[in-house]
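Backbone-to-sequence.
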């Protein structure tokens, strides 16, 4: 009887090796592209443009590239993400202005620089001027949310105190008359910040906003 030829050992090895090859492990967790700071910045832009109520979880998911479970896991619910976004905005605005508030410069020049930076912030935005997060959206939420109300009041008080320090030092240097009230002037300076924020959101041209600023500075500092 003729015996059938057996398959050479060398021919069987590749098939056995292929069968024995371990399967690639499945990836788990968020994609590596996920960056909390980037996602929070995108959420901030959305809340600042549309406000809290008009911004849906689907909007946030699309803007950040994260699904709902990932959003909840990273930031909490929508309200928690809004508060984190507002705090981020306040931190960035403070960082942009703090050195000018502390600078040793004539009062008129210092105020002009502060308002110029404010206008840069309020008039920025890919889809148009966005104004101020505090004035345009957080102030509305403060009516019914005590935590947001506390943040808004803290921010307003912080700005009043910073301006008051500027006017007090200017008074000590003789830049203001003896009867000048640093507290009252600080409130006027803050009110000017708020009005240019609102008008910027309404697309008032920068030149008109700068004219408002110049008029306010003349009132606060007196004629040149």
């Amino acid at each position: 009887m003729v015996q059938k030829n057996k398959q050479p050992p060398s021919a069987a090895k590749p098939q056995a090796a292929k069968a024995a090859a371990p399967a690639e492990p499945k990836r788990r967790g968020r994609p590596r592209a996920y960056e909390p700071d980037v996602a929070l910045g995108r959420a901030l832009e959305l809340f600042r443009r549309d406000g809290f109520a008009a911004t849906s979880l689907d909007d946030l998911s699309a803007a950040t590239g994260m699904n709902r479970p990932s959003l909840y896991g990273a930031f909490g619910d929508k309200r928690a993400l809004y508060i984190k976004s507002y705090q981020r905005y306040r931190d960035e605005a403070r960082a942009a202005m703090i050195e000018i508030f502390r600078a040793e410069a004539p009062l008129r020049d210092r105020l002009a620089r502060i308002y110029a930076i404010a206008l840069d912030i309020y008039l920025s935005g890919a889809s148009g001027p966005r104004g101020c997060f505090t004035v345009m959206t957080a102030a509305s939420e403060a009516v019914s949310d005590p935590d947001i109300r506390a943040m808004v009041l803290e921010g307003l008080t912080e700005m009043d105190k910073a301006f008051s320090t500027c006017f007090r030092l200017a008074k000590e240097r003789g830049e203001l008359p003896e009867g000048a009230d640093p507290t009252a002037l600080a409130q006027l300076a803050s009110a000017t910040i708020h009005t240019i924020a609102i008008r910027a959101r309404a697309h008032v041209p920068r030149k008109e906003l700068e004219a408002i600023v110049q008029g306010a500075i003349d009132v606060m500092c007196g004629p040149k």
